[in-house]
Amino acid sequence: MSERRASTGITVACAQMDPELGDIEGNIDRTERGIREAAARGAELVVLPECASGGWAFADRGESERAAQPLVGGPTITAWQKLSAELGIWVCGGFGESTADGALYNSSVLIAPDGVKSLYRKVHLWNTENLAFDPGDLGYPVVETPFGRVGMLICYDAWIPESFRSLAVRGADLALAPSDWVPNPHQPADMPPLAHIMVTAGAHSNQMYVAASSRFGVERGQEFIGRSAIADHTGWLLATAGDAEEVITASIDPVGSREQRRNDPFNRPLGDRRISQYALGEVETGLA
Amino acid sequence: MSERRASTGITVACAQMDPELGDIEGNIDRTERGIREAAARGAELVVLPECASGGWAFADRGESERAAQPLVGGPTITAWQKLSAELGIWVCGGFGESTADGALYNSSVLIAPDGVKSLYRKVHLWNTENLAFDPGDLGYPVVETPFGRVGMLICYDAWIPESFRSLAVRGADLALAPSDWVPNPHQPADMPPLAHIMVTAGAHSNQMYVAASSRFGVERGQEFIGRSAIADHTGWLLATAGDAEEVITASIDPVGSREQRRNDPFNRPLGDRRISQYALGEVETGLA
């Protein structure tokens, strides 16, 4: 058992940074700094924030288009791929994606040293993102890796419990969440940030690890809180960041803990579902 | 607008107590104390804990059966109905339910001064409850009341996000959650109890109010934490209890806030769902 854990466990890192709107080259440098620090600290996987390639607060679709790039051959993905191969570290990061048919997505990519392994397109656009991006159309892909089955979600997706749940249903052990977390207007001072509550609830209810890398700083008046967080499968946080540039790390073992998670004698909120009893379609009356 | 709020808003109360295993008459007295205090403090609706009629820690099905009662004509429901009519207060509480065909449910009831309005049977049994009860078979009913559309869930149901979601899909403005919250074995001292995290996440992601009444005390070695909580539709807690006998109250307006909740410019996690992108069936591989 301990041998198995030793062979499957990894160090995961979240590199928190402050990307600059439209500055593709400068942001490549910023992400490189985080990726190199994560690798130097022994991480096998590093998560970067949402829209780490070109910033977030686009005024319109023209602006987001100028900062976007294709998955294959784009400058940021190319740079991350090169660093991944050089350092032997997996890289997950958010980027503005343009496609050949003119679509624009708030996307994230999972890159292994030998190539791109997964692409996710943000399903739930938040606020003014609707002016800059098309809603994601790939659902919630999950891929096998040496450190477990991995899926992605982006920022506000974590507010909608179907995001974590869809990953869990598809077998994910670990959710990676590039994020640009903003302050909650009603946040009480004596409670954790709402983002941490969503991460803890999502990790616990789905018995999966979560690594969420957020940004800090201000863009066009929109403040970001940082506070990147890594949760284990109980939901509680193994590591958290402050509100400045920082790389946080945690030791996790998504593969080695599968048996324990499956047979948890205390709580089994994923296995205890009773699908026949639910109403999960369109809202039948009222609010939405 | 203020007139509308004044006409639809209510004071909701949670009466936290320590029921005794198998002591039906004593527990009627305990709940009466909480109901009367809630009414005296101006509450139009009071929520009692899970299994407030006969306790929780049943060793086997024989024991839970001896403490159970039918919905119609059972001593506890009869007593609550009488108090509801006398005091003009709605009562929601948990009770062990027996049926004519020999089923046993961990149930909750919503009683108006003029009669029973809704019955819920706990969908997700936790731990040893599986020895004492049958799993609920009514899904998540929602009923119209003068203070909004109301549904119920019980304790561990809140750990499974489909519970809150099913209520929201059926149009609920307010979820009532009779609970017997237990300590989380991994609870960090510097974080809110996991139960509060689940209530906050459920209320926020579904833009609904939640009133959760928990018990305290120890039954057959099982500790309960109390910490009853009332959340508004942002998820943040309006009132919380400690770990002793206590009635907490909060002013809420589920009907008057519908427009505001529907058009929240900041977050609309219920309205922003994209059902076509989800995987919500049986787990496809792995954990469960």
TrEMBL record, chains A, B:
Keyword check for Amino-acid biosynthesis: no
| UniProt domain CN hydrolase: residue ranges | 10-254
Q: Does the keyword Hydrolase apply?
A: yes
Q: Which PROSITE patterns match?
A: CN_HYDROLASE
Question: What's the name of the protein?
Answer: Putative amidohydrolase
Q: Name one GO biological process term.
A: putrescine biosynthetic process from arginine
Q: Which GO terms describe its molecular function?
A: N-carbamoylputrescine amidase activity
- Record's Pfam families? CN_hydrolase (PF00795)
Xref: PANTHER family: BETA-UREIDOPROPIONASE (PTHR43674:SF2), NITRILASE C965.09-RELATED (PTHR43674)
**UniProtKB keywords:** Hydrolase
Q: Secretion signal: which residues?
A: none
InterPro entries the record matches: Aliph_Amidase/BUP (IPR050345), C-N_Hydrolase (IPR003010), C-N_Hydrolase_sf (IPR036526)
